[in-house]
Write a structure and sequence with these properties.
This protein is 68% helix and 4% strand. With 280 residues, the protein is mostly helical. α1 runs antiparallel to α2 and α5 runs antiparallel to α6.
Length: 280
């Protein structure tokens, strides 16, 4: 899954208490107590509430709270990225695009917004613009989620069926974060797609060493790699893990039906073979 930067989209619904300051007016000894909660803080609280409502499907309350956030802080970039997420959720991509553009008009170098706009564009198959936006995010010196953005680029290129660029960006993601399990698994899948089983196995092992938990997809891929290497013992080991750990998963059911005759990586492999043949 292509990932949004961890800014407002994963905001929890939290209530923030206002700071209280004690001031004296007209040289009187009686203090006047005032709440010192800034408009930005109130806006962020409304954004958190709005996104919480959006997550549970209450779009009316979601939009109401986002409008209130905008009223508190109309120049706050998170207001517009939250609205972009709202409009994307309710299937209004043109309006979402305008909100991202408004956010970037406030700060053209906001790396989180650039990354998230790129993810949005990739979702809507605008691959060239998506790549440009995410690369801009990566180029921001203070941006910390570089590995995540390179992985986003790789996944986007896979959607575009550009396998060579996908590998290039996965390489960069792994250089920036060598223990990232998600990138290692994607690289194992890409080598499987290219029929490079030795490297596919290598990256599956690295994934296993880095991951805190297995997934049905990873176990299915490991099984298929072992089958193609004609290592029935290891293949059976992965199959048993799949059935024991994820008995209700799609992959487990497919194993029972047809021993995982085809997984997603097999479909990608056919597309890769077709692409390679086009260049011969």
């Amino acid at each position: 899954m292509i990932k949004l930067s961890k800014i407002i989209f994963f905001a929890s619904m939290v209530a923030t208490s206002a700071c209280v300051t004690q001031r004296y007016e007209n040289n009187k000894s009686t203090p006047v107590v005032k709440h010192d909660s800034s408009k930005n803080e109130m806006a962020m609280t409304r954004i958190s509430l709005g996104l919480g409502y959006l997550k549970v499907g209450n779009t009316v309350q979601a939009k109401l709270n986002l409008e209130k956030a905008k009223g508190f802080a109309p120049e706050l970039i998170q207001v517009y990225t939250a609205f972009a997420h709202y409009y994307d959720t309710v299937n209004e991509p043109d309006l979402a695009t305008k909100q991202y553009q408004q956010a970037l008009a406030i700060n053209p170098n906001d790396a989180d917004t650039l990354n998230n706009f790129g993810v949005f564009l990739c979702k809507h198959q605008d691959y060239d613009r998506a790549e440009a936006q995410i690369l801009k995010a990566i180029a921001v010196p203070s941006y910390l989620l570089v590995a995540q953005s390179y992985e986003n680029l790789a996944l986007c290129q896979l959607k575009a069926k550009n396998f060579s660029k996908a590998q290039l960006y996965l390489d960069k993601a792994i250089v920036h974060n060598p223990s990232n399990a998600s990138s290692l698994l994607q690289m194992a899948q890409l080598y499987y797609v290219k029929s490079d089983l030795l490297n596919a196995q290598k990256y599956i092992k690295r994934y296993e060493q880095s991951s805190r938990r297995f997934s049905p997809n990873a176990l299915a891929l490991a099984y298929k790699i072992s089958i193609k290497q004609r290592n029935q013992t290891v293949a059976k080991y992965y199959a048993n893990m799949l059935l024991q750990m994820f008995p209700n998963s799609h992959e487990a059911q497919q194993y029972i039906l047809n021993e995982l005759d085809e997984i997603e990586a097999d479909r990608l492999a056919r597309e890769y073979t077709g692409e390679s043949a086009d260049f011969k």
